[in-house]
Amino acid sequence: MRKLELLTKAHERAGFDCGSEPLNVFLRQTARQHAERGISRTFVLVEENAVEPKPILGFFSLNLCQIKPAALTPEFARRLPRDVSGIRLGRLAVAKEFQRQGIGKLLLVGAMVKFLEIFQLAGGIGLFVDAKDQAARRYYEQFGFVALPSNELELFLPVRSIQDALAGLKQRQPD
Ligand SMILES: CC(C)(COP(=O)(O)OP(=O)(O)OC[C@H]1O[C@@H](n2cnc3c(N)ncnc32)[C@H](O)[C@@H]1OP(=O)(O)O)[C@@H](O)C(=O)NCCC(=O)NCCS
Fold it and tell me: How does pLDDT run across 15-44, given as a tens digit for each residue?
Protein backbone atom coordinates (compact mmCIF):
# COMPACT_ATOMS: atom_id res chain seq x y z
CA MET A 1 0.00 0.00 0.00
CA ARG A 2 1.19 3.52 -0.76
CA LYS A 3 1.75 5.79 2.20
CA LEU A 4 2.79 9.37 2.90
CA GLU A 5 5.74 9.50 5.31
CA LEU A 6 7.87 12.25 6.75
CA LEU A 7 11.22 12.18 4.91
CA THR A 8 13.91 10.30 6.87
CA LYS A 9 17.12 8.35 6.19
CA ALA A 10 14.90 5.33 5.48
CA HIS A 11 14.07 6.85 2.07
CA GLU A 12 16.13 6.55 -1.11
CA ARG A 13 16.75 10.16 -2.14
CA ALA A 14 19.72 9.74 -4.49
CA GLY A 15 17.82 7.89 -7.21
CA PHE A 16 14.85 10.27 -7.36
CA ASP A 17 14.39 12.06 -10.68
CA CYS A 18 11.34 14.17 -11.50
CA GLY A 19 12.93 15.84 -14.53
CA SER A 20 13.58 19.10 -12.70
CA GLU A 21 17.11 19.28 -11.29
CA PRO A 22 16.45 21.99 -8.67
CA LEU A 23 13.66 19.82 -7.21
CA ASN A 24 15.87 16.69 -7.30
CA VAL A 25 18.69 18.57 -5.57
CA PHE A 26 16.30 19.93 -2.96
CA LEU A 27 15.19 16.42 -2.07
CA ARG A 28 18.74 15.00 -2.05
CA GLN A 29 20.61 17.78 -0.29
CA THR A 30 18.33 20.25 1.42
CA ALA A 31 15.04 18.74 2.55
CA ARG A 32 16.32 16.91 5.64
CA GLN A 33 18.48 19.85 6.76
CA HIS A 34 15.46 22.13 6.40
CA ALA A 35 13.37 19.77 8.50
CA GLU A 36 16.02 19.63 11.25
CA ARG A 37 16.23 23.43 11.34
CA GLY A 38 12.47 24.01 11.29
CA ILE A 39 12.47 25.67 7.87
CA SER A 40 10.13 23.21 6.16
CA ARG A 41 8.88 19.64 6.34
CA THR A 42 9.04 17.21 3.43
CA PHE A 43 6.63 14.32 2.97
CA VAL A 44 7.32 11.44 0.60
CA LEU A 45 4.98 8.93 -1.01
CA VAL A 46 6.36 5.38 -0.79
CA GLU A 47 5.25 1.78 -0.88
CA GLU A 48 4.75 1.12 2.83
CA ASN A 49 6.37 -2.32 2.73
CA ALA A 50 9.24 -1.50 0.36
CA VAL A 51 12.74 -2.56 1.41
CA GLU A 52 14.72 0.30 2.95
CA PRO A 53 15.92 2.64 1.69
CA LYS A 54 12.43 2.98 0.22
CA PRO A 55 12.17 4.38 -3.33
CA ILE A 56 10.33 7.74 -3.42
CA LEU A 57 7.40 8.01 -5.85
CA GLY A 58 6.84 11.70 -5.17
CA PHE A 59 7.16 14.35 -2.51
CA PHE A 60 6.00 17.73 -1.31
CA SER A 61 7.23 20.17 1.29
CA LEU A 62 5.32 22.56 3.52
CA ASN A 63 6.30 25.62 5.53
CA LEU A 64 4.55 28.38 7.42
CA CYS A 65 4.18 31.72 5.67
CA GLN A 66 2.99 35.25 6.33
CA ILE A 67 0.73 37.04 3.85
CA LYS A 68 -0.35 40.65 3.37
CA PRO A 69 -4.08 40.60 2.48
CA ALA A 70 -3.40 43.29 -0.15
CA ALA A 71 -1.70 40.55 -2.21
CA LEU A 72 -4.99 38.61 -2.42
CA THR A 73 -7.97 39.26 -4.67
CA PRO A 74 -10.50 41.62 -2.97
CA GLU A 75 -12.91 38.71 -2.49
CA PHE A 76 -10.46 37.00 -0.11
CA ALA A 77 -8.84 40.12 1.38
CA ARG A 78 -12.04 41.46 2.93
CA ARG A 79 -12.13 41.77 6.73
CA LEU A 80 -8.64 40.33 7.25
CA PRO A 81 -6.13 41.92 9.66
CA ARG A 82 -2.90 43.48 8.35
CA ASP A 83 -0.87 40.24 8.42
CA VAL A 84 -2.28 36.74 8.17
CA SER A 85 -0.74 33.28 8.14
CA GLY A 86 -0.91 30.53 5.58
CA ILE A 87 0.90 27.34 4.65
CA ARG A 88 3.21 27.29 1.65
CA LEU A 89 3.42 24.21 -0.54
CA GLY A 90 7.08 24.83 -1.24
CA ARG A 91 7.67 21.96 -3.63
CA LEU A 92 5.74 19.21 -5.37
CA ALA A 93 7.28 16.57 -7.61
CA VAL A 94 6.63 13.08 -8.92
CA ALA A 95 9.32 10.63 -10.13
CA LYS A 96 9.40 10.56 -13.96
CA GLU A 97 8.37 6.92 -14.22
CA PHE A 98 5.25 7.60 -12.14
CA GLN A 99 4.10 10.85 -13.75
CA ARG A 100 0.60 11.12 -15.29
CA GLN A 101 -0.76 8.38 -13.03
CA GLY A 102 -2.57 10.63 -10.57
CA ILE A 103 0.24 10.74 -8.00
CA GLY A 104 0.58 14.54 -8.19
CA LYS A 105 -3.12 14.76 -7.41
CA LEU A 106 -2.70 12.30 -4.52
CA LEU A 107 0.15 14.42 -3.13
CA LEU A 108 -1.97 17.56 -3.37
CA VAL A 109 -4.75 15.84 -1.43
CA GLY A 110 -2.09 14.81 1.12
CA ALA A 111 -0.94 18.43 1.39
CA MET A 112 -4.56 19.54 1.92
CA VAL A 113 -5.01 16.99 4.72
CA LYS A 114 -1.80 18.24 6.37
CA PHE A 115 -3.03 21.81 5.93
CA LEU A 116 -6.24 21.00 7.81
CA GLU A 117 -4.24 19.41 10.66
CA ILE A 118 -2.24 22.62 11.02
CA PHE A 119 -5.41 24.68 10.60
CA GLN A 120 -7.00 22.88 13.59
CA LEU A 121 -4.02 23.78 15.76
CA ALA A 122 -3.04 27.25 14.60
CA GLY A 123 -5.32 28.51 11.83
CA GLY A 124 -4.08 29.65 8.42
CA ILE A 125 -6.08 31.14 5.54
CA GLY A 126 -5.10 28.54 2.96
CA LEU A 127 -2.37 26.93 0.91
CA PHE A 128 0.02 29.06 -1.17
CA VAL A 129 2.21 27.77 -3.93
CA ASP A 130 4.88 29.20 -6.25
CA ALA A 131 4.47 27.59 -9.67
CA LYS A 132 7.81 27.21 -11.41
CA ASP A 133 6.37 28.05 -14.83
CA GLN A 134 3.09 28.53 -16.74
CA ALA A 135 2.56 24.77 -17.16
CA ALA A 136 2.86 24.30 -13.40
CA ARG A 137 0.43 27.23 -12.89
CA ARG A 138 -2.15 25.50 -15.13
CA TYR A 139 -1.56 22.29 -13.23
CA TYR A 140 -2.45 23.95 -9.90
CA GLU A 141 -5.38 25.90 -11.37
CA GLN A 142 -7.18 22.71 -12.33
CA PHE A 143 -7.35 21.89 -8.60
CA GLY A 144 -8.92 25.27 -7.73
CA PHE A 145 -5.79 27.29 -6.92
CA VAL A 146 -6.26 30.97 -7.86
CA ALA A 147 -3.38 33.11 -9.15
CA LEU A 148 -2.60 36.19 -7.03
CA PRO A 149 -3.20 39.50 -8.84
CA SER A 150 0.36 40.65 -8.03
CA ASN A 151 2.06 37.53 -9.43
CA GLU A 152 0.37 34.98 -11.66
CA LEU A 153 2.92 32.31 -10.68
CA GLU A 154 1.92 32.55 -7.03
CA LEU A 155 -1.35 30.78 -6.33
CA PHE A 156 -3.72 30.47 -3.41
CA LEU A 157 -6.18 27.74 -2.36
CA PRO A 158 -8.45 29.09 0.41
CA VAL A 159 -9.32 27.03 3.44
CA ARG A 160 -12.97 26.79 2.36
CA SER A 161 -11.98 25.19 -0.98
CA ILE A 162 -9.75 22.73 0.86
CA GLN A 163 -12.55 21.75 3.25
CA ASP A 164 -15.00 21.36 0.35
CA ALA A 165 -12.55 19.29 -1.73
CA LEU A 166 -11.81 16.91 1.14
CA ALA A 167 -15.49 16.63 2.11
CA GLY A 168 -16.30 15.79 -1.53
CA LEU A 169 -13.64 13.07 -1.59
CA LYS A 170 -14.94 11.60 1.68
CA GLN A 171 -18.49 11.43 0.30
CA ARG A 172 -17.28 9.53 -2.74
CA GLN A 173 -15.45 6.91 -0.65
CA PRO A 174 -17.41 3.73 0.10
CA ASP A 175 -17.83 2.96 3.86
C1 LIG B 1 3.70 18.54 -12.22
C2 LIG B 1 3.71 17.15 -11.58
C3 LIG B 1 3.87 17.28 -10.06
C4 LIG B 1 2.36 16.48 -11.90
O5 LIG B 1 2.28 15.22 -11.27
P6 LIG B 1 1.62 13.97 -12.02
O7 LIG B 1 1.54 12.86 -11.05
O8 LIG B 1 2.36 13.72 -13.28
O9 LIG B 1 0.20 14.58 -12.39
P10 LIG B 1 -1.22 13.89 -12.26
O11 LIG B 1 -1.17 12.50 -12.81
O12 LIG B 1 -1.75 14.07 -10.88
O13 LIG B 1 -1.99 14.84 -13.29
C14 LIG B 1 -3.34 15.07 -13.23
C15 LIG B 1 -3.67 15.92 -14.43
O16 LIG B 1 -2.88 17.10 -14.40
C17 LIG B 1 -2.53 17.49 -15.75
N18 LIG B 1 -1.07 17.54 -15.82
C19 LIG B 1 -0.18 16.59 -15.47
N20 LIG B 1 1.08 17.04 -15.62
C21 LIG B 1 0.97 18.31 -16.05
C22 LIG B 1 1.91 19.30 -16.38
N23 LIG B 1 3.24 19.10 -16.29
N24 LIG B 1 1.46 20.50 -16.78
C25 LIG B 1 0.13 20.73 -16.86
N26 LIG B 1 -0.81 19.83 -16.58
C27 LIG B 1 -0.40 18.63 -16.18
C28 LIG B 1 -3.16 16.51 -16.66
O29 LIG B 1 -4.42 17.02 -17.03
C30 LIG B 1 -3.36 15.32 -15.79
O31 LIG B 1 -4.39 14.53 -16.18
P32 LIG B 1 -4.21 13.48 -17.42
O33 LIG B 1 -2.93 12.71 -17.16
O34 LIG B 1 -5.44 12.65 -17.28
O35 LIG B 1 -4.14 14.32 -18.64
C36 LIG B 1 4.82 16.23 -12.18
O37 LIG B 1 4.65 16.16 -13.57
C38 LIG B 1 6.24 16.69 -11.86
O39 LIG B 1 6.80 16.32 -10.84
N40 LIG B 1 6.84 17.49 -12.77
C41 LIG B 1 8.18 17.98 -12.58
C42 LIG B 1 8.27 18.94 -11.41
C43 LIG B 1 7.24 20.07 -11.47
O44 LIG B 1 6.99 20.64 -12.52
N45 LIG B 1 6.65 20.39 -10.31
C46 LIG B 1 5.68 21.46 -10.16
C47 LIG B 1 6.15 22.29 -9.05
S48 LIG B 1 6.15 24.00 -9.38
Answer: 999 999 999 999 999 999 999 999 999 999
Supply the Cα-derived Rg of the chain in whole angstroms. Answer: 16
Give whole-number Cα distances, 62 to 87, 89, 102, 110, 171, in Å: 7, 5, 20, 11, 26
Distance in Å from the first CA to the final CA of the chain: 18
Check if 43 has its Cβ closer than 6 Å to any atom of ligand 1: no
d(CA 25, ligand 1 centre) in Å = 19
> pTM of the full predicted structure?
0.95
Please tell me if the CB atom of residue 99 comes closer than 6 angstroms to any atom of ligand 1.
yes
Q: Respond yes or no: is residue 139 known to be catalytic.
A: no
Ligand 1 centroid, distance to 155 Cα (angstroms): 16
Atom of ligand 1 at shortest range from CA of 93: 39
Instruction: With cut-offs at 50, 70 and 90, classify the pLDDT of residue 175.
Output: low
| Structural domain harbouring 65 | 2-172
44, 58 Cβ separation under 8 angstroms: yes
Total structural domains within the chain? 1
**Ligand 1 and 94: CB distance under 6 A:** yes
Q: What is the CATH number of the domain that holds 58?
A: 3.40.630.30
